[in-house]
């Protein structure tokens, strides 16, 4: 426990810093008469503040005595019933920890997102009834958080705060819409929290249909919520940094520890839209610096890779101290079909019940059913407004609508199509697409009436040809009889495919970049692949992030935002199992044991754009999946790990080309030693060289976390045009001991493309430790 005298000392220190910040601002701007608005004092991880200024005031601040660094604020964006089984948790890590009821117990997962719905069953505190008093951190060794709204804390939720000073100063925050509390008004935050640490076996029922039971990755872990993102505009870095500053642990003068909230794991399903332009290196922006300070205190941080794929250099999580998570498809999908009266069956998608019985029903095209089209916002073909249609014509038929770009960009929803159909007493609907691009954007939406979306233009045209050839029209073109018939299948039943995982089309790709000019970095990004597509998770009924799920308690959504909390939750499981391991060691255990093959044993594939709605599949590379697909059970026993600490990350920063020592000192208060070394010297469980001229020597230190002495041999698969040699090529290592590896990477030729290989350390007790090798060879080695 922390003594009262320690707490008083800390509060005095914090108060003194705030006073210093206030005095500094007053003295700097008092003489000019110009106004300013201080938003935050950062006094836990970093000594600084966020302030609203005019541009000329910012210039004044940059030149003021004692100011080390000034960065302009920028916006950030929000970037499961089956996945625990898909990842093998029930028979793997959960089993080892005593079952789902104990998995992750004692660990706190911090969620920086859009808030949380504390009434949702995924966050019920019933299982923590003995801890649901005002002392919500009861049973937790180091957590000291609290809820700004007392009712949010229930034993499962142990902390809940919101941060909106920057959003308010910008004029974006609206308390009546965005909620001036930790309450989730979007849905995104509740969803990510439930994936990481939602309760075990929560029934998922929508429209009266059961889709199974949902569980978080670490169902017994506690949740601390830091709301810094909002439904309409995303968020601002100043608010997110304030959330990180509050969430993380802080060593105070080396004698006081575990103050502030003290989460163990932090999930950030958030990131910038592009590399920040306000710092000389992507790694030195204030967002990544705040995360580095958190990692220094032992907090494992997972961040979404971004949704800018499949294009290269779209990663928005840059630094080597962050676990950057790519999104994959697991082995579950929800296909559907429509059977036409001409005996043709067309595939589609739709989480909807089938049309009644075995009968077929007449179809009617939306434009043929229009009764009043004189005044409308959406095209009648979008089927958003039942008042536009002749109800008698539509009744008992399958209504044919168009999945236009209004559904993607204009606010039209499948949910409203279903409402239109119900209002008109139609038997169901089918949505055809105008283009394959529109179809490729569609994801299944749970609805209560029979419905299906035909996602390819080829199948859409086939259905329309059948309809037009079967429909009798008068001389004026008006439909007179409707002879085309169809029945819709059951789209609510999941289908499982062994060809998984695959890298999702939207998942951002590497290589990593070191600055706003998109110059490549000697860091592998993304780091790991986790499920991110069609993930069931908690939702708030007032949520607007996905219009089709308004009013629902669960949502099925996709994104790297959904992949990142999978890794955060699994990190919580590893933290419980090995509480003394550093964030780098936990990350190393996940990464070196990740799989580069799918469930059939074939190499992983990645989705890429195609000329149709379905994506092409191509062989995946480390720039698609990092080290591979996460394997939680294997991560429990990695054999060897590659550790790195705060001092190592400072050396890495000092080695970044184009960054001077002054900039690093201003950002970290740490001085660079000479010589600076190379970025590739950082002891990562991978080797990335973005510009190899001739040859380079790369050091790595492997530490045994095995139970027994093990003999390892080195097996290298050389990247194309590269020769890699390792000394020693074989070694034995005792538990807790380390071995230094000297790796020589030599270019045989030059190329403008990266090539990929790997180094495997194969142990005689069953461990295989895999390090990806990615190299761009600029110049061939010459011995002369």
TrEMBL record:
GO cellular component, one term: extracellular region
UniProt-annotated stretches for the region Disordered: 597-618
A GO term for molecular function: serine-type endopeptidase activity
GO-annotated biological processes: proteolysis
InterPro entries (UniProt xref): Peptidase_S8/S53_dom, Peptidase_S8/S53_dom_sf, Peptidase_S8_Asp-AS, Peptidase_S8_Ser-AS, Peptidase_S8_subtilisin-rel, Peptidases_S8_3, S8pro/Inhibitor_I9, S8pro/Inhibitor_I9_sf
Record localization: Secreted
Domain Inhibitor I9 per the UniProt entry, residue ranges: 13-76
Domain Peptidase S8/S53: 104-606
Keyword Metal-binding: no
Domain called Subtilisin-like protease fibronectin type-III: residue spans: 681-775
Sorted UniProt keywords: Glycoprotein, Hydrolase, Protease, Serine protease, Signal
Pfam families referenced in this protein's UniProt entry, alphabetically: fn3_6, Inhibitor_I9, Peptidase_S8
Residues forming the catalytic site: 113 (charge relay system), 188 (charge relay system), 561 (charge relay system)
SUPFAM superfamilies to which the protein is assigned, alphabetical: Protease propeptides/inhibitors (SSF54897), Subtilisin-like (SSF52743)
Family: Belongs to the peptidase S8 family.
PANTHER family reported in the protein's UniProt record: PROPROTEIN CONVERTASE SUBTILISIN/KEXIN
Name this polypeptide is given: Peptidase S8/S53 domain-containing protein
Organism of derivation: Selaginella moellendorffii
Biological classification of the source: Eukaryota, Viridiplantae, Streptophyta, Embryophyta, Tracheophyta
